[in-house]
């Protein structure tokens, strides 16, 4: 009696082997079908991520386009949407191949080396994929529980993830071809032990995965698609905020609560030896324009607003700046990576680019950059500099 | 081109692309930051393989015992949908990025949102189970 109990306990506590996983659902036919969609999502995430990274580069050998004005809103929205859709896909895919983690290493040095390499590449892929999704999700909720630089690391790991993915496809190509051209219930590529029928069919598991992926998108996408705001109960922004636009960094966080409302505020526009100083009253005395442009944040949320203010080009004409000049925009903000930004010549010259003083007919709120902020078409939100104090022609 | 050549070319391309990423990772941050990034990279795998995966295994074993046969398929679909959505919602449910100076950030009641989602999933599971049991009786 005691021995049998003891045996059962040892049985329960021993590390699992591959043969312990008997469900027919954990099959290559399932893994590859999910893998196709995961690959597509990662591909879109990678390309839109590259676009976003380039858009934030101060130096752009090929000018980032200023049209369509909603371009970055779409690419960055897609970046976060495909990343979000990948979470259920990755989780179910890892579930479907989990038994492979417990395959005993083969005997013989050569075989061991080959297997080691393959497992190593899978390890890199899994680590990179989980890291990208987890760090991206945390970032979109403005949660930074780490000490590394998010932008540098997320960007570098994107190349690692895509590289490891391509290696993975190369390694598995014969199996991928085999299972994708056969019926999902085909057993010729199954592990020997994967014979136990389960109530859910393979087709059913796949459908549940597509459903979960769609639900994940619906639950979050309202932060960037206003129509779906009510459905998106996990959206990082409801879309509310002063003037109908959420705030990314508040005046308090930027440390400008005093300087932004100071009566001595002056905007300085500099071109070589020519300098012009303008108070907010002076700015309001110049020709006022209105443009409807979106704020599209790297974190994936976006909102469109009607901005009023002075056309950037009109300001540059005050100091006779030649067309095509890059500008350095300086904020009252004293710390942070984006207190100085470069506004490239093609953005500076675009008629829609404003030094905004108003939003939806009301004076700009302090959290939206009072007394004056940059708003330009097709540009990441972090570069739409708030609390502008100096514009210098480079 | 033979399959083997395609595979070798693909693998070579992958190693180049991944190597470029490794170079970017290693060349642009100091040692402490890299160590921290390495800890995070490893933690993701460890959390999945030794916490989340066993948890799901346990849940499935438990559900297999308590859910009646006719409800097993709807319950499995519910687990996939609600389980993955819950993992996805960890950053907002924990409200870790909340800032007192910015009321426009994380400005929803995410716990209520999760409960509503769980309610909808539960309701759908029950309805699907009832429909299936009626079908079986016929």
Order of helices and strands of chain A: HHHHHHHEEHEEHEEHEEEE
Multimeric organization: heterodimer
What's the CATH class of the largest domain in chain A, please?
Answer: Mainly Alpha
How would a crystallographer describe the biggest sheet of chain A? 5 strands, mixed
Q: Uncertain segments of chain B of ≥5 residues (pLDDT<50)?
A: none
What sequence of helices (H) and strands (E) makes up the elements of chain B? HHHHH
Beta-strand percentage range of chain A? 5-15%
Give the overall silhouette of chain B.
extended
Work out the helix count of chain A: 10
Helix content of chain B: over 70%
- Give the overall form of chain A: elongated
Major sheet attributes of chain B: none
The separation of the N and C termini of chain A measures 86 Å
Mean pLDDT of chain B: 95
Structure description:
The complex is a heterodimer of chains A (394) and B (138). Chain A has 394 residues and is of the alpha+beta class. Chain A contains 10 helices and 10 strands. In chain A, the strands form 2 sheets. A 5-stranded mixed beta sheet of chain A has the order 2-1-10-5-6. In chain A, strands 3, 4, 7, 8 and 9 form a 5-stranded antiparallel beta sheet that branches. Chain B has a domain of 71 residues. In chain B, 80% of the residues lie in helices and 0% in strands. Chain B contains 5 helices and no strands. The mean pLDDT of chain B is 95. At the A-B interface, α3, α4, α5 and α6 of A face α1, α2, α3, α4 and α5 of B.
């Amino acid at each position: 009696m005691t021995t049998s109990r003891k045996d059962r306990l040892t049985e329960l506590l021993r590390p699992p082997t591959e043969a312990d996983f008997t469900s027919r659902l954990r099959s290559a036919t399932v893994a590859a079908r999910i893998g196709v969609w995961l690959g597509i999502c990662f591909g879109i995430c990678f390309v839109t991520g590259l676009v976003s990274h380039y858009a934030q580069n101060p130096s752009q050998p090929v000018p980032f386009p200023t049209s369509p004005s909603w371009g970055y809103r779409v690419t960055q929205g897609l970046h976060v949407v495909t990343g979000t859709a990948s979470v259920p896909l990755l989780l179910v895919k890892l579930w479907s191949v989990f038994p492979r983690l417990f395959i005993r290493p083969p005997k013989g040095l050569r075989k061991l080396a080959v297997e080691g390499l393959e497992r190593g590449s899978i390890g890199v892929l899994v680590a990179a994929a989980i890291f990208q999704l987890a760090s991206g999700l945390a970032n979109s909720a403005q949660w930074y529980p780490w000490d590394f630089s998010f932008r540098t690391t997320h960007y570098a790991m994107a190349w690692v993830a895509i590289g490891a993915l391509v290696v993975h496809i190369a390694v598995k190509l014969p199996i991928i071809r085999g299972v994708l051209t056969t019926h999902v219930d085909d057993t010729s590529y199954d592990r020997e032990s994967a014979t136990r029928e389960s109530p859910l069919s393979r087709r059913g598991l796949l459908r549940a995965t597509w459903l979960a992926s769609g639900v994940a998108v619906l639950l979050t996408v309202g932060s960037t698609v206003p129509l779906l705001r009510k459905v998106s109960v996990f959206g990082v922004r409801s879309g509310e905020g002063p003037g109908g636009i959420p705030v990314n960094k508040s005046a308090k966080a930027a440390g400008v609560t005093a300087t932004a409302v100071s009566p001595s505020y002056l905007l300085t526009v500099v071109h070589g030896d020519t300098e012009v100083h303008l108070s907010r009253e002076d700015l309001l005395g110049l020709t006022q324009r209105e443009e409807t442009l979106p704020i599209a944040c790297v974190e994936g949320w976006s909102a469109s607003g009607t901005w009023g203010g002075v056309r950037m080009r009109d300001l540059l004409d005050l100091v006779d700046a030649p067309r095509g000049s890059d500008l350095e925009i300086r904020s009252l903000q004293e710390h942070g990576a984006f207190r100085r930004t470069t506004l490239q010549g093609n953005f500076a010259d675009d008629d829609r680019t404003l030094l905004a003083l108003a939003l939806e007919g009301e004076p700009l709120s302090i959290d939206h950059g009072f007394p004056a902020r940059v708003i330009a078409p097709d540009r990441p939100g972090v570069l739409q500099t708030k609390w502008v104090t100096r514009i210098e022609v480079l | 081109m033979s399959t083997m050549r395609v595979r070798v070319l693909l693998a070579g391309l992958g190693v180049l692309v991944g190597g470029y990423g490794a170079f970017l990772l290693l060349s642009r941050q100091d040692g402490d930051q890299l160590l921290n990034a390495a800890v995070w990279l490893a933690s993701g795998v460890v959390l999945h393989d030794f916490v989340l995966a066993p948890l799901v295994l346990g849940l499935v074993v438990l559900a297999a015992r308590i859910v009646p046969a006719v409800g097993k398929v709807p319950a499995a679909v519910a687990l996939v949908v609600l389980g993955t959505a819950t993992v996805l919602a960890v950053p907002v449910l924990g409200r870790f990025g909340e800032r007192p100076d910015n009321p426009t950030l994380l400005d929803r009641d995410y716990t209520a949102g999760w409960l509503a989602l769980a309610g909808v999933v539960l309701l759908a599971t029950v309805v699907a189970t009832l429909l299936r049991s009626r079908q079986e009786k016929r």
